[in-house]
């Protein structure tokens, strides 16, 4: 965990060093107060003048200390946000940009994803945070002990022994804390996932009169979460209490030693005040040691869970250096050997010469689409063993190729293999005769755009959901092409209409046409569409294809069963049990 944390704080070393110095100074400032207290008490005991001036100095030190904390807290907050941002950006960027299919790395539920991106990242960010407190407590303890050793050496021993005992006990609990935290995270993810599913399926619950059953399921999940969470929290609190208790024991032992010395007359009243003040400072160290050990054990689990979202050879990128685009805008998507190690010629950019700045396909080794070919493509799903076997398929420029076949024939798998969304076990995908080592890096806008059978929409305004960062100039045309113009006229807020989570406020047909607009606004050379007929009536689908064809989107690969679409096709490919069958 120490190595991971060093890499995380190494993203902004100057900012962390500045915060560290400020935090240590805040923790050490009571040492100055202790010296002032000793001077005040000695003057009071001896009747010397100047007591009020020293008291004013004590007050001034405390005022300055807490004013200093306000300034340090501002600096700390910026660092803390960075510690949260770096893992989230790195993991998210890996999921959407790294080569190969991301499906195997995605969490099973949206709730699990939320848990990892929110809770696990927060746990990780707490480690460099507690380093600050532990460092401050350690430095102030070291200085305080050095002063107290000069007063009474046994005081140092009285503080050290309980601290060692607490650290030993906490280390013994470490493995158990990891397992308890892992179980608590899984239980939390199940609850949040069920909430998301329930919100997205509220109409289905109402239609089935399943509210009582949903309530019972929710209660059962919460009960399980309560059990695992209780064990996790009790274990963590035991360690924290061990640290706090150790500090109190150390303080008590130190005072006993000092009391014996005072009785012998070896210490002044001021020395006693100094010891009491310093004992309170030193007592913080065992508390922070306990808290540090709890947080690091929990963060161990969080790092493992975040790393599971990354490709196996690239697990270290959880806390890799902060992408400079966080501060200076997006960089090119590939930088070759000088950057992130990706080869020159990133397919998202063409030849790697620079970032894509418009909707035109950049020049590169693949060129504009003349022919897309699948040669002997085989995909086997690990769980079911089914998929597609030795599929050959050709889509030429200007052609409409339709894939049809019974349910379970492998039609969707075929499209996903073409796009690099599933791993291909054998065969090749070729663009203009060039085999694609990783289709997921090439088969993206503006080369290809994918319209899945079940569209994934965001709960954002309509315009943002369609554009997803694209310039807004083509929005109106894309909405017209997808036959949303009449629906848009009935929306009071127009393109600013909020769609609700996963497009909940839209009908199935509207959601599918919004997804179509999202694909069309990128003006791809190849449209890949998985069965528009699942939510569109015959007339609307026919009108949509008329507009799309008139708009110049003449090269498409579709999955469909409808006769009108099959009659339009230049070629029909029929799949059955994962194989191409003839005749189509």
What would your notes on this structure say?
The protein is an alpha/beta fold. The protein has 18 helices and ten strands. It has helices at 2-9, 13-46, 51-97, 110-151, 153-200, 202-207, 211-264, 269-282, 284-307, 325-328, 411-419, 439-442, 462-467, 475-481, 485-489, 508-520, 538-550, 563-568; strands at 371-380, 387-396, 400-404, 426-431, 434-435, 448-451, 526-530, 556-559, 571-576, 579-581. The chain is elongated, with a radius of gyration of 32 Å. The protein starts with a helix and ends with a strand.
Structure classification = alpha/beta
Main β sheet profile: 6 strands, mixed
Overall mean pLDDT stands at 79
Major sheet strand order: 6-7-8-3-9-10
Shape: elongated
* Distance linking N and C termini: 58 Å
Q: DSSP helix count?
A: 18
Oligomer: single chain
SSE succession: HHHHHHHHHHEEEHEEHEHHHHEHEHEE
Q: Please estimate the helix content.
A: 55-70%
Uncertain spans, ≥5 residues at pLDDT below 50? 322-363
Query: Beta-sheet strand percentage?
Result: 5-15%
Rg computed from alpha carbons, rounded to a whole number of angstroms: 32 Å
Q: How many E strands?
A: 10
In short, what is this structure?
The protein is 59% helix and 9% strand. The chain has 584 residues and is an alpha/beta fold.
């Amino acid at each position: 965990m120490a190595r991971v944390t060093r890499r995380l704080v190494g993203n902004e070393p100057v900012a962390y060093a500045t915060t560290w110095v400020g935090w240590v100074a805040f923790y050490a400032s009571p040492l100055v107060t202790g010296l002032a207290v000793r001077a005040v008490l000695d003057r009071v005991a001896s009747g010397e003048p100047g007591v009020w001036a020293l008291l004013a100095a004590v007050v001034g030190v405390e005022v300055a200390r807490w004013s200093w904390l306000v300034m340090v807290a501002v600096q700390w907050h910026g660092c803390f946000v960075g510690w949260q941002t770096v893992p989230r950006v790195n993991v998210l960027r890996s999921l959407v940009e790294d080569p190969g299919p991301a499906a195997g790395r995605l969490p099973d539920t949206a709730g699990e994803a939320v848990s990892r991106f929110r809770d696990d990242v927060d746990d990780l960010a707490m480690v460099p945070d507690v380093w600050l407190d532990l460092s401050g407590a350690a430095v102030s303890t070291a200085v305080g002990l050095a002063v107290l050793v000069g007063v009474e050496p046994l005081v140092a021993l009285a503080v050290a022994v309980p601290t060692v005992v607490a650290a030993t006990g906490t280390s013994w609990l470490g493995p158990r804390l990891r397992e308890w935290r892992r179980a608590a995270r899984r239980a939390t993810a199940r609850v949040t996932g069920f909430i998301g599913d329930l919100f997205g399926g509220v109409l289905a619950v109402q239609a089935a009169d399943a509210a009582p059953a949903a309530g019972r399921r929710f209660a059962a999940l919460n009960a399980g979460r309560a059990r695992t969470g209780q064990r996790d929290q009790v274990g963590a609190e035991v360690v924290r209490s061990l640290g706090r208790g150790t500090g109190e024991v150390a303080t008590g032992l130190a005072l006993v030693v000092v009391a014996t010395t005072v009785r012998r007359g070896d210490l002044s009243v001021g020395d006693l005040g100094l010891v009491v003040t310093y004992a309170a400072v030193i007592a913080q160290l065992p508390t922070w040691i306990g808290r540090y050990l709890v947080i690091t054990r929990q963060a161990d689990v969080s790092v493992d869970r975040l790393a599971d979202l990354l490709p196996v050879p690239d697990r270290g990128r959880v806390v890799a250096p902060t992408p400079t685009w966080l501060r200076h805008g997006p960089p090119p998507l590939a930088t070759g050997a000088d950057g992130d190690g990706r080869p020159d010629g990133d397919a998202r950019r063409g030849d790697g010469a620079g970032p894509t700045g418009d909707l035109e396909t950049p020049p590169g080794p693949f060129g504009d689409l003349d022919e897309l070919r699948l040669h002997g493509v085989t995909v086997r799903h690990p769980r079911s063993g089914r998929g597609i076997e030795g599929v050959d398929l050709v889509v030429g420029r200007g052609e409409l190729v339709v894939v049809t076949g019974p349910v379970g024939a492998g039609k969707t798998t075929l499209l996903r293999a073409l796009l690099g969304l599933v791993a291909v076990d054998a065969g090749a995908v070729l663009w203009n005769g060039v085999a694609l080592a990783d289709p997921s890096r090439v088969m993206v806008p503006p080369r290809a755009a994918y319209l899945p059978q079940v569209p994934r929409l965001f709960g954002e305004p309509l315009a943002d959901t369609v554009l997803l960062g694209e310039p807004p100039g083509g929005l109106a045309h894309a909405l017209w092409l997808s036959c949303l113009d009449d629906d848009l006229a009935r929306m009071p807020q127009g393109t600013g209409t909020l769609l609700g989570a996963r497009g909940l406020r839209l009908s199935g047909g509207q959601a599918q046409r919004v997804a179509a607009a999202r694909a069309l606004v990128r003006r791809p050379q190849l449209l890949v569409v998985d069965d528009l007929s699942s939510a569109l009536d015959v007339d609307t689908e026919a009108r949509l294809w008329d507009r799309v064809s008139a708009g110049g989107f003449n090269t498409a690969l579709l999955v469909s069963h409808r006769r009108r679409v099959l009659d339009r096709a230049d070629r029909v490919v029929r799949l059955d049990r994962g194989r191409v069958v003839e005749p189509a």
